[in-house]
Design a protein that fits this description.
Helix 1 runs antiparallel to helix 2, helix 2 packs across helix 3 and helix 3 runs parallel beside helix 4. The chain is 32% helix and 20% strand. The protein has an eight-stranded mixed β-sheet with strand order 1-2-12-11-8-3-4-7, sandwiched between helices. Strands 6-5-10-9 form a four-stranded antiparallel β-sheet, with no helix packed on it. With 283 residues, the protein is α/β, with parallel strands linked by helices.
């Protein structure tokens, strides 16, 4: 039994069809975000073991925000219990807010409460490293971000490293955005600077609750593209949980393949796709 299969066995899982037409998928429905986290963590640890045996690093595509936190926390717990060496894991971060700089853009201040760099260094690594011995931890130089001055170089860096083993993604509640890819995004888009949709900025008021209003949310971001994720990942997992995401599940289920007006539907065109839900997100 693989680690992924063991993680499934630990929890009651329901399989349901999702999507319309020939590209429909089977979604996994778990009881809670914690159960989702346990399953995703076993997938990651199984992949880390396989990569280590092959003598190569393991690349994990990572969003910030609320949705993936149960997976990062479970990864930390399970790695600590098993004594797993995570030092060859690289976190490939999805996006970050940017601010104007000269004729272009630069990362928002790293200390800002909404900085994805701060969230990666403090929140994500904090969760993963809890209980993990220092020599087995992920070093800061293995936490990658796109350079706003040369965003397309990020795709090349990922490709040159051999691609991403598992890319964790999530769906915006109101518009289905993935990273900062708003409605209308091309399914073949690469890493780039984008203006943020009003709906995306509104969703991020919940992700970063210290924002006092939408006017404080930056207007631009640097983001991996839907094509970055699709073309450079061996497996892609779309995680959706919580009652506030019921419309996101309903909208995804109504799609016939990729619908540019609901970017999360790109999952229907990904290699080895996983759609993972919890019961509270079910319409």
């Amino acid at each position: 039994m693989t680690a992924g299969q063991e993680g499934t066995a630990l929890h009651e899982v329901q399989q349901i069809p999702i999507g319309q037409g020939p590209e429909a998928l089977s979604a996994m429905v778990f009881a809670s975000p914690e159960a989702i986290g346990d399953y995703v963590a076993t997938l990651i640890l199984d992949g880390v073991r396989i990569a280590r045996e092959a003598g190569r690093p393991y690349l994990l595509g990572c969003p910030t925000g609320r949705t993936p936190m149960s997976s990062y926390q479970a990864l930390g717990r399970r790695a600590a219990l098993a004594g797993t060496d995570l030092s060859q894991v690289t976190l490939v971060m999805m996006d970050d807010y940017v601010v104007p700089s000269g004729n272009g853009f630069e990362h928002c201040p790293a200390a800002a409460h909404y900085s994805c760099r701060r969230a990666a260094w403090e929140d994500i690594l904090g969760a993963i490293h809890a209980g993990v011995d220092v020599p087995h931890r992920i070093s800061l130089d293995r936490v990658w971000f796109a350079d706003p001055a040369q965003p397309d170089a990020y795709d090349r860096r990922i490709r040159d490293a051999g691609g991403i083993d598992l890319f964790i993604t999530a769906s915006g509640a109101s518009d289905g955005h993935v990273a900062f890819n708003a409605p209308g995004s091309s399914i073949d888009s690469g890493c780039r600077i984008v203006p943020l949709a009003a709906t995306t900025r509104a969703d991020n008021l919940l992700t970063f609750p210290r924002f006092k209003g939408i006017d404080e949310v930056p207007s631009h971001g640097v983001t991996v593209g839907l094509g970055t994720i699709r073309s450079l990942s061996r497996q892609v997992a779309l995680l959706i949980h919580g009652a506030n995401k019921r419309n996101a599940v309903r909208r995804l289920a109504a799609c016939r393949g990729y619908d540019s007006q609901w970017p999360a539907s790109f999952i229907y065109r990904c290699a080895n796709p996983l759609v993972i839900l919890d019961r509270s997100a079910m319409p």
